[in-house]
Structure formats: C-alpha cells, structure tokens
Amino acid sequence: MSNKDLVTGTKISIGEETVEVRPLTIRQLRRFVKVVGDLNFEDQTELSDSDIDKMVEAASIALEKAAPELSKDTDAIEDSLDIRTFNAILNAAMGADPNE
After folding, report:
1. Range of 87's domain?
2. DSSP of 46-94, one letter per residue?
3. In this structure, is residue 100 part of a structural domain?
4. 13 is a domain residue
5. pTM, full prediction
C-alpha cells in the first residue's frame, strides 16, 4: 500500500502564500488532540475567546512543518486565517481531503 497521497499533503492558500499541509505526526497529534478535544465545531457562531485561542493553537501545531515562521506567530495566524481556511488546515492535518 502506497502513502503517496500523504507525502504530498494538501495545498492551502493563506493570504498571499500557498503552503502544503501534511497529516500530523504522532507526536504532533498528541498535542493537537489535547488542544482541540474540548472544541465544539458544530456551532461556530457561538465561539468564545477561549475557543478561538484553542483554534489558533491547533492551527499553530498543524502549520509547524508547512509554515514554521507563521506557526510561531499567533498574531499572524489570527490575521491570516478565517474559519474556512482553519477548517481546511484541520482537515489536511488529520489526513482528510479538505474539499470533501
């Protein structure tokens, strides 16, 4: 069985830049799950500041390898991502096709 689809990742536009987000490593996944475990993605109209902080932290983990500089800058993440892009990054980081 080939993992070619995992090697290439998913290209996602963030502002003027396009990054290739790959599925998380097991080490990243451990941290990621701790952050997103309490988020409720069903009702994105009722997000608290705490929820948004967790979203930014989750995006930071997901972008560590695809965009190392961006992943270290929470202000830049907040300025660059909207909900749709955030969801695409999460799907790609979890190995799902963000277009499905």
Report:
1. 4-93
2. S--HHHHHHHHHHHHHHTTTTSHHHHT-HHHHHHH--HHHHHHHHHHHT
3. no
4. yes
5. 0.84
